[in-house]
Amino acid sequence: MSAGRRVERHALVVGVRPERREEYLELHRDVWPQVEQTLREANVTNYSIFIVGDTLFAYYEYVGEDHAADMARIAEDPVTREWWTHTDPCQVRIVEERDPGALWQPLDEIWHLP
């Protein structure tokens, strides 16, 4: 990241199907290296997924210049698409659909301590 570049913080939420919770957790104990590499190449950093009950929260920082284009690049990656065939069935949308068709829905930042 170059000096002075703005970091965008992104947070998302989705539910995990109770009957597939352990499967989802197991998948994330050993995330495929190419999935991680694709995220890095798309300017995603500091990515975390948290769980409480059957709710998943994701947080990542974006350090690129065109978030939409980089997210599209991730979605076009064949290995990531294959990864999603394993993870998506474990998930269920639990909030109002703001990002059409997406399971993970964005959260609004209301406070940040820099």
From TrEMBL:
Membrane-spanning intervals of the chain = none
Signal peptide coordinates: none
- Which Pfam families does its entry note? rhaM
Show the InterPro entries listed in the entry.
Dimeric_a/b-barrel, Rham/fucose_mutarotase
Give the protein's recorded name.
L-rhamnose mutarotase
Taxonomic source organism: Sphaerisporangium rhizosphaerae
What is the taxonomic lineage of the source species? Bacteria, Bacillati, Actinomycetota, Actinomycetes, Streptosporangiales
